[in-house]
């Protein structure tokens, strides 16, 4: 099917079984599950709209289109992918909540809309819990700490920190999203260096200015970082994740530098709007997304994009939401990131 451009499998089986037991699949206006059939026989009765909280070309956009293709193939209806960037994902989240009933409406976002924003913003136009049904965590997105080798002579993170602490100098670091900002702030807190944030609206803009020598370091998403690292225009000194990643096996983590509590990785996830997507449909979508991403082809897709595979389940997503709302909330308050 065409895409229009405008933790376990057991849990998904249980979701489908419970929905079928309640007879919801036979309700008026819903696509029916054939008696005795499973998700493989489920067909949608209208199109799916996926609204992505970030711009075209990024990791969230890429994975949204990948799972959109899987949904279209399995559900038998077109999938529309729309990008609605801005306001740390709030614009997209509100758009999904307010979307019309002509489609089953899904949100692809992550730890901004469903963890950090509850602390950053005094008021949200959506409720992360009540307005959305969690479908799946789709990938973890670690950040690479990048420097411009023409501006920063140090070739290791340890040497960089020794240099940064000299003479009480104040450095500058870029961020293009909430996760990257939190990684930079947490790095500053733990290493006790002086640094000020330079915010950007997109990873591409921040990368352009890093190459241009406009600031000292940048915790960058892997999709943007990898091509420039391979080209030699930037140098990766450390990773924000708790473990090294396959695409950069020689780059150490910040935790390896003597900061074992440092672990800041964003995650990309997908939710359905409760108001326009009934539970039987959400259950089928969750299963299809899991099948696509847990397949060998899906795992290969993630690794090539610099993403880290993760348990694909609603339960794991709920766990991450609760954990990062709590942990990131503390960092946000300490760093003074709250909006006035």
Automatic annotation (TrEMBL):
Source organism of the structure: Alicycliphilus denitrificans (strain DSM 14773 / CIP 107495 / K601)
SUPFAM superfamilies cross-referenced by the UniProt entry: Periplasmic binding protein-like II
Tree of life domain: Bacteria
CDD domains referenced in this protein's UniProt entry, alphabetically: PBP2_Bug_TTT
Family of the protein in this entry: Belongs to the UPF0065 (bug) family.
Keywords: Receptor
Name this protein carries in UniProt: Extra-cytoplasmic solute receptor
Record-linked Pfam families: TctC (PF03401)
């Amino acid at each position: 099917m065409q895409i229009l451009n405008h933790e376990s499998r057991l849990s998904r089986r249980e979701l489908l079984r419970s929905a079928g037991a309640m007879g919801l699949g036979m309700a008026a206006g819903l696509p029916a599950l054939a008696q005795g059939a499973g998700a493989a026989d489920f067909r949608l009765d209208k199109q799916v709209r996926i609204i992505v909280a970030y711009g075209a070309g990024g990791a969230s956009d890429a994975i949204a289109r990948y799972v959109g293709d899987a949904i279209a193939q399995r559900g038998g209806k077109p999938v529309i992918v729309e990008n609605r960037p801005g306001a740390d994902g709030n614009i997209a989240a509100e758009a999904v909540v307010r979307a019309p009933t002509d489609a089953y409406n899904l949100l692809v976002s992550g730890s901004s809309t469903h963890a950090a924003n509850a602390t950053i913003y005094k008021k949200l136009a959506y409720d992360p819990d009540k307005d959305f049904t969690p479908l799946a965590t789709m990938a973890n997105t670690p950040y690479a700490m990048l420097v411009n080798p023409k501006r920063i002579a140090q070739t290791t993170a340890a040497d960089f920190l020794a240099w940064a602490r000299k003479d009480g100098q104040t450095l500058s670091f870029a961020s293009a999203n909430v996760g990257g900002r939190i990684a930079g702030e947490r790095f500053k807190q733990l290493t006790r260096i002086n640094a000020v944030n330079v915010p950007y609206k997109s990873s591409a803009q921040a990368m352009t200015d890093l190459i241009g020598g406009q600031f000292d370091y940048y915790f960058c998403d892997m999709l943007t970082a990898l091509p420039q690292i391979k080209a030699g225009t930037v140098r990766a000194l450390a990773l924000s994740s708790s473990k090294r990643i396959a695409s950069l096996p020689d780059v150490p983590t910040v935790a390896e530098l003597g900061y074992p509590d440092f672990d800041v990785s964003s995650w990309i996830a997908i939710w359905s709007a409760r108001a326009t997507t009934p539970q039987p449909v959400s259950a089928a979508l969750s299963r299809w997304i899991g099948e696509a991403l847990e397949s060998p082809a899906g795992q290969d897709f993630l690794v090539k994009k610099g993403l880290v595979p993760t348990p694909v389940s609603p339960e794991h997503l709920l766990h991450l939401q609760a954990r990062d709302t709590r942990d990131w909330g503390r960092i946000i308050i300490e760093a003074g990131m709250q909006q006035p």
